[in-house]
Structures are given as C-alpha cells and as structure tokens.
Amino acid sequence: MTTFDIESFEAMAESETKTLHVAMIGTRGVPAAYGGFETAVEEVGRRLVERGHRVTVYCRNADTSIKTHLGMELVHLPAVKKRSLETLSHTAISVLHAMKQRPDAAILFNAGNAPFIGWLKAAGIPSAVHMDGLEWKRAKWAGLGAKYYKRAERVAARSGLALIADAQGIADYLKAEYGRDSHLIAYGAPIMDPGSEKLAELNLEPGMYHLVVARMEPENHVDVIVEGYAGSGSDLPLVVVGTAPYGDEYMSRVRETAGDSDTRFLGGVWDQDLLNQLYANCRSYLHGHSVGGTNPSLLRAMGCSAPVTAYAVDFNTEVTGGNARFFASAEDVSVAIKIDDHDAANCRARGAAGRDRARTAYRWDDVASKYEALLSKVAAD
C-alpha cells in the first residue's frame, strides 16, 4: 500500500494554478463587435481557455446560433430593448442563470450593474467588479441616469468585492472618492501592419487624411475636432468613423459644424480590415474621448502606428506615455493639424513611438495573467 504526506500533497496542489469555471457577466458578449468590454472579454477569455479554464460568456448578440467562440461557452439571453433598461435587464437574467450554474468566480462588468452584486453574494459566487470609466459623466445619462450611475458606483465601491480599474486615473479616483484600493488591469493593444489596399475603396491615399473614430457623443468631443479641422484650412480630408447610437441631435450639430470643409462622414465601419487600414495610414488620429479610462480605440490606433493627437485628460496622457499631441479646444486642434500637415516625418516618428509604447505596456498576455491571478485569488478567498 502506498502512503503519502497529505500536507505535502496539498502544498503541491496549491503551487499549481487551479482550473476555474469563470463567468463573464454584464457585456454584450462575444464575438466582440461593440466596445472595450467586449474586446476585453474576448481577448482575456480566449487566453483563459488556452490555459485550461472554462469560460462562460453571457451574450445579447443578434446571432444566437453561435454556441462557442474561441473556446468560450456562450449563453444567449434576452434583454429589454430600451436604452435605460437593456443592460440591467440582461444582467439580471444572466445573474439568475449563473446562480444555477455556480461558477467558481465571476466578473461583473460595469458598476451600473451594482444592484445584482447582492444576488451574487447571496448565491456564494466569488466575484469582482470591473468599474469602467466615470459613466455618470456621460451626457446621455444626464439627470436621473447620472444620479443612478453615481449611486450604483458607490454601491459597487462599498460592496467589499474586488474592484478592477482599467486606468491609473480610475484607480486614483476610487481611492480618493471611496477609500478603496483596486486592481489596475488595463486593456491590451493589438500590434498590426494591416497594409493599405482597401483605402482605394474610399478614394483615400496613405498619409493623406486625418482620422476620427468615435461614437457620436459629447464627451468624445467630435464636434470640437471637426470645428478645429474646419478652421485649420487643411488640404487633407478629415475622415469621421462612428455612429450616433442614442439619437441624431449631436450628429446633426457635428455635421453643421463641418460646414463646407472636406469632412467625410463614413458612419460605422464594420469591416475590421478596412478600419485597421484607416488607423494605420492616417496623417494623424484625433482622439477626443474624455471619461472612459483606457480606451480600446486609442490602443488600436497606437498598435497600428497612428500618430495620435488626443484630448488633454489624464487617461489619454497615461495611455500614450506622452507620445502624442494634446488638445483642449478647437483652436488647439487647428494648430495640431497645421503642424502635422507640414511635417509628415514627425508624424511617422510619433506613430512609431506610440506603437512601441503599446507593444511594451499593453500586452494582452499580461492582461490575461492579471485577470487569472485575480480570479484565482477571488475564488480562493
């Protein structure tokens, strides 16, 4: 009969990473086609699967026939198709489903989903909350919506669950506002050389246009960028990619601001190869986001060597590591565009420096390792 030291066996087992069943709750799900949360779920989830973990992603995709994606198990559940209720209704049903599945750990994305933290606790599901950016500052939630998001943020911060911040500025805010430490886990950046052959479809030439990629919302300052471009007298067109998901009033204002300048509104570009080529070949990429922490569009632009001109807020200075021009007004945009129009070599150098920053500081493998360590700790605790 073989004998063994039980304490040595336990120590050996603990030295290895335990295989976990992880639930990702609160996003639109995968395949990623919408925003930062979805990209994070896809990139982190696929790597967790590769490392032997089981990952369940709760989705509200149109195509419910997709049951797995990159090894992740997809659970498609309905949602109320109304802006103020869509996320909450879907998360509520997702949490109820997870309570039956009993995963080893869960990540609840978006502090706005805080009402369901109590459900996860009651079910004994170890969880962490990804706090996102300062959602209550977004114009689309003005009034009661802003009050709700601020209150939900407070509930999440005081829940006792592990908190995830995707930028140092968010981590600093949580510490100052609520006295809570958080786990700083940013997004990763895709490093790409996508070519330029598709630009001809849009009658564009490499290096001969400026670019904006953003949802048409006030806190993304597309109106400021367009106004600055219109006042710059640039001979290069400004290409604007993005939709107005919650109404056309802001978009109408942006179009008015463009006047008779060569501003080209493409709407949503869903061809990812084309979008990557737009990033990679622009004279400059103008990034106006101001409230969302580490922004995936900015990282994607940097990974494609796009020369960045960004809105002057701490999140953007942190991500770019200073390898960018910055603006706070339309006049600043005009100056930046004029300089870049006459110094293509400097633009290329700025783009290369930004790419190096993205390659070293924002690696998806490192991001996944941080999530894996956090989930293991949450499950063990």
TrEMBL record:
Residues 21-189 form the DUF1972 domain. This is DUF1972 domain-containing protein. It comes from the Bacteria. Residues 209-322 form the Glycosyl transferase family domain. Keywords: Glycosyltransferase, Transferase. Pfam families: DUF1972 (PF09314), Glycos_transf_1 (PF00534). It comes from Nocardioides pini.
